[in-house]
Amino acid sequence: MKHFVLATAGHVDHGKSALVKALTGTDPDRLPEEKARGITIDLGFAHLDLKTATDESIRVGIVDVPGHEDFVRNMIAGIGAIDLALLVVAADDGWMPQTEEHLQILLYLGVSHAVIALTKSDLGDQDKVRADISAHLRDTAFAQAPIIATSARMNQGFEQLTLTIAAQFSKMDAQRDLGKPRLFIDRAFTLHGIGTVVTGTLAHGKFHLGQRVIVQPKELDARIRSLQSHGTDQEAVGPGMRTAINLPDTQIGKNGTSVARGDVVTISELGEASTVLDVLLERSPRLRPKTAAARPLREGMSIQVHLGTARIAARLFLLEGTMISAGEKAIGQLRLATPLHALLGERFILRDASERYTLAGGIILDPDGNPKKFRTEAQRSFLRTRAAAPQDVDLAVAAELERGVAVRRDALLRKSLFSGVEISEAFYRLEQNGRALARGDILADAQCWRALRDRTIAIIDEQHRHSPDRPGIDLSELRSPDISADVFDALITDLCSDGFVRAGAIIARASHRPALPENLSAAGTKLRAKLCAKPFDPPSRADLAPDLESQQALRFLITTGEAVEIASDSIVLAENFDKMKNAIVDLLAKRGATSASELRQALGTTRRTLIPLLEKLDREGITQREGDRRTLRRA
């Protein structure tokens, strides 16, 4: 069975709820206030099971929306993930202000399929109203939408409307499973003995019983205890299904630890919420001149952002210019009053701060915007590239890699409406074209990676030239603060596979051999001579290196391993250290426990040298002290 979602749209009192009741037998007006006032105030729900001409089964979740101008915010909350719009126009009224506003909202949100229900057809001039509807839909995605006349009073047209809806769905593909489930909550309530239940239209992925989920933007961890769709228990639910989820780990409410309309049930892999969104804005050319809705959007103005079922106050900033007029597009930044969980490619609506007018629509270009970087040249280029084709996965991957130089494989476009398969295939195409490359779990723009690699090599080479006595450069000195640890590790691994070596925290060219600079060469020669003169009884450090040049040369010998610093005041050549160590091991192997005095006499050294030497061998696990004697450490 295929699953789809249909939502009504249209002016108040044009018969949307009556139409839903006639189609499904369910009255979507569930609130006492709605019954008393005779108008829809909040979202209503029903479902319809259909058969196509090819006997295919379709289950349609229906969302009935309010048509009154005071409740447009509720209307928007109901149509964020629909497949088909049922645009309702009454024959006795014709095209009305809310008909137009609802149409613009549908177009802003990218809804591309519609059926027009001409209600109260017995009360008006059908031909005239049909012509008027067609004129209003000209040059829109709904220009070819079928118009079906109905009359609840005469009980006419509903069979034809049902067949038309079924025919529309039969030509549509079911919503795709992107592996990124998103359920924007449109209702949250508590049932006695069950706990918190939230409902919404599931999009972009699946949920199953027992699954751990997260409620954003509040980052509430929860477990799915039960699932329903249209009152029927489910083991799992998928895209396009009206879904009720029992989340016993949560509470309802509007505080920071409760779930409410506007929150989204999703998975932790999709990252955190953000307070800054970089977006592509679009203003309809249909906005009537000299009306409040058509006034220019200006830099810094306060607005309301509607995404999914969420509604958040924000301020608008523009990448270029100071205003956007009707019929124009522009790149902007939304700085939100509270966090919002959004993905690249999701669509939203902008309304004025007092929520009287729909001003614009848009699409998310960067769900993790940054006010400080918004107008940098790099971000300008990135946003312009992405705005040119927001649905192009190859372009999105290329732009992301170029902007970040490199990213982890599992993080590439994680917060986007592209599936993991689509992202991997796009990267593979870029890799085959030489525009991208992989280094383990790191993916990178090829040109940017080469530039980063060349800059890093230049720094290493400069270190070798400037300090030839050093074995290399410390990694902490090499890493730039704007390079993540993962990317830096991949870079070092890449270098070490091609002519570089790493020793602990030091990296150098494999061909690099530390050497004393010319001005210290003579001092190094003197040091070696002094250390060779008394191999087991070297001079004190002060006698060995009395001046700055000899001190620098001595540090070089120790750093390169040519000399061993037994203690701060006892330094020997490495070969002599090995001879002393081997001699002590041989003596202890033959004699067993031996005093320091006996070892000193056997080696012909002094106590100043021997005691630090024995302590060093103790630390290295070669010898162990037993009272005033030494033995070899037992295995």
Q: Provide the helix percentage.
A: 25-40%
| Morphology call | elongated
Rg, Cα atoms, Å: 37 Å
Structural class: alpha+beta
Low-confidence runs (pLDDT<50, min 5 residues)? none
Number of helices: 18
Largest sheet: 9 strands, antiparallel
Distance between the termini: 71 Å
Strand content: 25-35%
Mean pLDDT: 92
Instruction: Please provide the count of β strands.
Output: 36
Protein described:
It is a single chain. This protein is of the alpha+beta class and 635 residues long. Helices cover 32% and strands 28% of the residues. The protein is built from 18 helices and 36 strands. Strands 7, 8, 9, 11, 12, 13, 14, 16 and 17 form a nine-stranded antiparallel beta sheet that branches. A six-stranded mixed beta sheet has the order 2-3-1-4-5-6, sandwiched between helices. α7 packs antiparallel against α8 (393-404). The longest helix has 21 residues, at 446-466. The protein is elongated and about 120 Å long. The two termini are 71 Å apart. The model has no long low-confidence stretch (mean pLDDT 92).
Please write out the topology.
Blueprint: E1 2-10, H1 16-24, H2 32-37, E2 44-51, E3 57-64, H3 72-78, E4 84-90, H4 97-108, E5 114-119, H5 126-137, E6 147-149, H6 158-170, E7 182-184, E8 187-191, E9 195-203, E10 207-208, E11 212-216, E12 220-223, E13 226-229, E14 232-233, E15 236-237, E16 242-246, E17 264-266, E18 274-282, E19 297-298, E20 302-307, E21 310-318, E22 323-324, E23 329-340, E24 347-352, E25 358-366, H7 377-388, H8 393-404, E26 406-408, H9 420-432, E27 436-439, E28 442-445, H10 446-466, E29 473-474, H11 475-478, H12 485-496, E30 500-503, E31 506-509, H13 518-533, H14 541-544, H15 548-559, E32 563-567, E33 570-573, H16 574-591, E34 594-595, H17 596-603, H18 607-619, E35 623-626, E36 629-632
